Amino acid sequence: MMEASVHAYLVRLIADREAHAKFMNMLSMLEHMGSRKIMVSQMHKQETLTEDTLKHLAEEARHAYFFKRQAERAAGHALDGWTEENTTARVPALMYFGRMDAGISKEVGDDLAYYWVSLIIELRACWLYRIYQEALEASDYQLSLKSLIAEEDGHLEEMFGACGADTQRLRALSTYETELFKNSGPR
Fold this sequence. Notes:
With 187 residues, this protein is an all-alpha fold. The chain has a single domain (2-184), classed as Ferritin (Up-down Bundle). The protein has helices spanning 2-15, 17-42, 51-75, 90-108, 110-137, 146-163, 167-184. The longest helix has 28 residues, at 110-137.
């Protein structure tokens, strides 16, 4: 049900270059927020920071750059920053991410927050990017998310390895995130 409405929203969005540019700029903002969250949450682990975590951070920053570059290509001009004028649903997106991060962190504690927040957000990103890729393929807009989806799948696999065995918590946190997404997502 939700997948069909998101797909329909994306099909309409892709047909409107200006709206599409603002949407991609919002995705850039969210990917940047994800990379920043990884950096901030892992700063205290300087002696135990893993190569996988640094790779995850770098890939999220690269995804932010990818979407920013694509947004500016679609707009035909620079979209400096993530302002209300050049970003779709900026405030709802910020609130979604902030509430999700705070709610999950409160539930699992600071030591596990990186893994659980990453797992839940990667689940949503993989879901959304697959629908977005389908909508792009059905349009005449030339953009592929396949390599980005492959990287997100890798992040998802890593996070499942870290916390996926706790299926009861996974269900509860996924339900929490889904409600946040429904309340801030496309209509």
